[in-house]
Amino acid sequence: MPTNKGAFKIFTLAGIGVYVHWSWFLVAFYSIQYRTHQYSSVGWNAAEYFALFLIVLIHEFGHQLACRQVGGQTHDIVLWPLGGVAYVTPPQRPGAQLWSIAAGPLVNVALVPVLAALWSASYHLGWSDSHHDLYNLLQNIWVINLVLLIFNMMPVYPLDGGQILRSLLWFMVGRAGSLFAASIIGFIGVAGLIGVAIWLQSIWLGVMAAFILMNCWGGLRQAQALARIAKLPRREGFACPSCRTAPPLGELWRCGKCGKQFDTFLTHGVCPHCGVQYGTTRCLDCGAAHPISEWMTSPPVNN
């Protein structure tokens, strides 16, 4: 997944940093300068690309604000050539996950009638003749928003449609099973997308297929890890303050300094290999991080 590395921060809104990856500028320059279009000047191409930027950005803010609404943590937004990524950590509950994901596409749904009304008004005002470039711009913005909505709602993980499917399956087959099923369906979608990319001879679709393939593989491995963790015995005397689940027994936490794994509850947050003290411990079930003192449900036992 994209990260802030190689990205430039352009502004902060509501405590959320918005970053643009350097490769986004290259694609924007190519699209504005060389993509064939029906405008009379390159300035209209730039306006259309800026509209694409705004639509993607509003979509990602939809994810962020919905995550906050259900009590999750929000981080940054990174825009890159294949779209945007909203770094959010919603509570590990299917309903919270579903709303955090669905809010993004709902923004595009809300924009459909608004943009359609603007395009229709421009037609009735005769702008198709008197202001041809502006009329085409409004028409193309409506098409862009609709295409992004349809593509993003494909039930292919990690697209929003695939993550919504995963959230719905979570209610029936659990966290690990839903991620496993969504990843498998994603592999099927990747195969279809590769076929379309070859048929259209589209490098862009090929890159998108490779991105989705890597995420499906990562999702499959994560699902397998979650299934293994769910079967592990649990430590008594501790429970996650967020999800109230007892932590699993074993050396399952990895030190960020030396890279070795250890049981953080056995050592009270200290890596036994390099001595680093960790102030918080992340729950392997819900992802929330809290000081070990907040995990204690009974006095610790000295082993």
DSSP helix fraction: 55-70%
Treating each run of at least 4 consecutive H or I residues as one helix, how many helices? Answer: 8
What can be said about the biggest beta sheet? 4 strands, mixed
Name the helix and strand elements from N-terminus to C-terminus, one letter apiece: EEHHEEHHHHHEEEEH
Strand content: 5-15%
Strand neighbour order, sheet with most strands: 1-2-3-4
C-alpha end-to-end distance: 40 Å
Helix and strand composition category: alpha+beta
Structural summary, described in words:
With 303 residues, this protein is α+β, with helices and mostly antiparallel strands. The protein has 3 domains: 1-153, no CATH class; 155-231; 233-303, no CATH class. The chain contains 8 helices and 8 strands. The chain has helices spanning 22-34, 42-69, 94-124, 127-130, 132-152, 160-200, 203-231, 292-295, and strands spanning 7-13, 16-21, 73-80, 83-89, 253-254, 261-262, 281-282, 289-290. A hairpin with a 6-residue loop joins strand 5 (253-254) and strand 6. It is elongated and about 75 Å long. The model has no long low-confidence stretch (mean pLDDT 88).
